[in-house]
Specification:
binds zinc ion; 9 strands; 60s Ribosomal Protein L30, Chain: A; 2 domains; alpha+beta; 3-stranded antiparallel β-sheet
Length: about 180
């Protein structure tokens, strides 16, 4: 198990549970592959630690070109694209359930993805069930297109690879509070 410390809180964690940043051409990039051979440092997938990177204290390390907001938006795009890819793969493997009623009646463990414009009524109905939810910043039409439908407010993934589990877990830690 390879561990690294977060440059902000100094907590040691497994490398895969940290976000790697690399210095490249006077820019700081997130290295999602964790393989770019450049000087690097690590930060927690945590909104507090990530936001701290915008403090003056880190400007010497990160350089003045570091744009926190731009990098957070890149991170979000990366997560959403990964989740979209995950839904796509699951769809091909017939591991998705589509629609509020189907999600509610599905009895086994599943990860439920919700569109940003789901109605309160549907959301409350779903919340009564003991399931893992992730509300995404995509609307019902976008979520629908991921599963070849016109519009979908809730879709469930019934089986996930561990790397996608990590992506969902990390996404929740950084962005789920926005919903
Ligand atoms: Zn940290």
């Amino acid at each position: 198990m390879t561990t690294r410390s977060c440059i902000v809180c100094r907590n040691k964690q497994e490398k895969k549970d940290l976000l790697r940043l690399v210095k490249y051409d006077n820019n700081i990039l997130f290295d999602f592959s964790q393989k770019i051979p450049q000087r690097s440092f690590y930060v927690c997938y945590d909104k507090k630690c990530l936001n701290s990177l915008g403090h003056k204290k880190y400007s010497k390390l990160l350089g003045t070109n570091f744009d926190l907001e731009l990098n957070l938006s890149r991170l979000k795009t990366y997560f959403i694209n990964s989740i979209k890819q995950m839904v796509n793969i699951s769809f091909v493997r017939e591991k998705v359930i589509i629609g509020v009623e189907s999600v509610i009646t599905y009895s086994k463990k599943a990860i439920i993805l919700l569109a940003s414009d789901i109605t309160m009524r549907s959301e409350n109905k779903l919340l009564k069930n003991d399931k893992t939810f992730l509300k995404l910043p995509v609307d019902r039409f976008e979520l629908g297109s991921w599963v070849r439908k016109t519009e979908v407010v809730a879709t469930g993934i019934t089986s996930l690879d561990s790397n996608y589990k990590d992506i969902i877990f990390h996404y929740q830690k950084v962005f789920s509070w926005e919903n």
